[in-house]
Amino acid sequence: MMLEQAGQVLQKYFGYHEFRPGQDQIIASLLKGHDTVAIMPTGAGKSVCFQVPALLLPGVTLVVSPLISLMKDQVDGLNSQGIPATFINSALAGTEVRRRLYDISAGRYKLVYIAPERLETEAFQAALQRLNISMVAIDEAHCVSQWGHDFRPSFRNIRPFIERLKVRPVLGAFTATATNEVKTDIAALLSLVQPDVYVTGFDRPNLSFTVLRGENKQKFIMNYLQTNSRQSGIIYAATRKEVDGLYELLLKRGVSAGRYHAGLSDEERAQQQERFLYDDIRVMVATNAFGMGIDKSNVRYVLHYNMPKNMESYYQEAGRSGRDGLPGECILLFGAQDTLLQKFLIDKSVEDPVRKHHELRKLQLMVDYCHTPECLRQYILRYFGDTAAASECGNCGNCDNAGELVDITLDAQKVFSCVYRLRERFGVTVIADVLKGSKNKKVQQLGLDRLPTYGLFAQRTIPEIKALIQRLVATQYLNFTEGEYPVVKLTAQALAVLKNEASVWQKETTQRKLEADDDLFE
Ligand code: ADP
Ligand code: ZN
């Protein structure tokens, strides 16, 4: 019933025929009076989730938003759709503020946008106390958390303000940030009462995802650009130096390329960005500095020359392809050095030990993405907590991979027993050395060449063995300890396999190539 009405409002005011997945649940939850946390990526259609209930609830909905510059546009947009909305921010004169408050209290508006800073003034708070507020929608709610990337102290005013209201409105918190820390903070610091949490809209069905390990990255990119020479795309690299190196290489080979990173002058950056937007150049080689707020719809591919530091960054960058809804290709070129580089960058930039631990954990989940044999889209959706994750997507490197499911129990047992014999005290390199039967100094000094698992994989290359270990980490048979020298441990799953109580089946990969040629510009 409620949803039926909501559907009518959606059609009447917004002109849409149906809700996107998740929108209906969020709206129903708010209409039932449940505090609600909605985690949706940008562009997924979050506004409708509070605007529709605002029109159905009695009284007014307060929308707290930090994006002051967008407020007027949003309100103008609503007004043109016939929705009575207004905003109050510091750009307005005192008399205008008073006039609007009067009109609000006279019931002339259903939606009122305010900036959180406004709540700092006592007079303003007092004026709001007199209104009949049914719902408070908090946009960019992660700003309340110090764990987010965008902490704003003014968000800490929201909770005391709500607590002072005589009638407690229903609260809706909206954000694109889905980490557990942020979710917990949002609930606690905004004083939500047993909120329903919905994570939705993360799937981008028109994007395909692929991870390539052990490619010659340069060769791959040259080939790729040749076969996609008419299309526009972005290549992300981890450092300025790598951007410059790749950019120069592309120019030398006659590719119409631009570059973008924080080491360039403002002027050059603006110019490069402009040329890309207007299709003067086809390929942008860039660090993660590129892309904030650019909205180019016809980006057909995003290649990652290096693995980024976490899944949030990866998905955001890869998501810049296919904005127009047409197919977009997202390919990540993984090299073992990428992990070391990201570790190094985290070490250098993060001091707080708790935060460092957190960043390293996120990095490991990124590395796992690069090694998982399962559907990459499912991995992504699960990472963001999106419950809409269906079965295998059929549109990612692992789903497309024609490889059969094979029983790799024996190989896995060899790895596990080696880890076991090493008493779970060593990292990937030593384990791989022992399995390979390497004669290096460390192995000999420690007498590891006398272990029964020594040389079990003598026929394989070290990169192959390491990739197998990483894959067993990605599928939770093994895990790493924290710290500078991560040690590999067995999980309960692995112990069951060692005891022959379980077997390991994984999709055969076609990639057994070596991880060579990675250090291109050294
Ligand atoms: P954000 O989540 O970034 O705030 P918006 O609320 O601005 O996203 O919505 C993104 C786009 O999706 C807008 O153009 C909006 O009109 C559109 N949209 C939202 N809901 C629907 C729907 N149910 N059907 C079709 N389009 C929708
Ligand atoms: Zn898939």
UniProtKB/TrEMBL annotation:
Q: What keywords is this UniProt entry annotated with? A: ATP-binding, DNA damage, DNA recombination, DNA repair, DNA-binding, Helicase, Hydrolase, Isomerase, Metal-binding, Nucleotide-binding, Zinc
Transmembrane annotation, as ranges: none
Under which EC number(s) is this enzyme classified?
Answer: 5.6.2.4
Listed under catalytic activity are: Couples ATP hydrolysis with the unwinding of duplex DNA by translocating in the 3'-5' direction
Instruction: Determine if Transmembrane is one of this entry's keywords.
Output: no
According to the UniProt entry, its GO molecular function terms are: 3'-5' DNA helicase activity; ATP binding; DNA binding; four-way junction helicase activity; hydrolase activity; metal ion binding
Assigned GO CC terms: bacterial nucleoid; cytoplasm; replisome
According to its UniProt entry, the protein's GO biological process terms are: DNA recombination; DNA repair; DNA replication; SOS response
Assigned protein family: Belongs to the helicase family. RecQ subfamily.
Q: What is this protein called?
A: DNA helicase RecQ
Organism from which the protein derives: Dendrosporobacter quercicolus
Source organism lineage?
Bacteria, Bacillati, Bacillota, Negativicutes, Selenomonadales
Residues represented out of the complete protein: 1 to 522 of 711
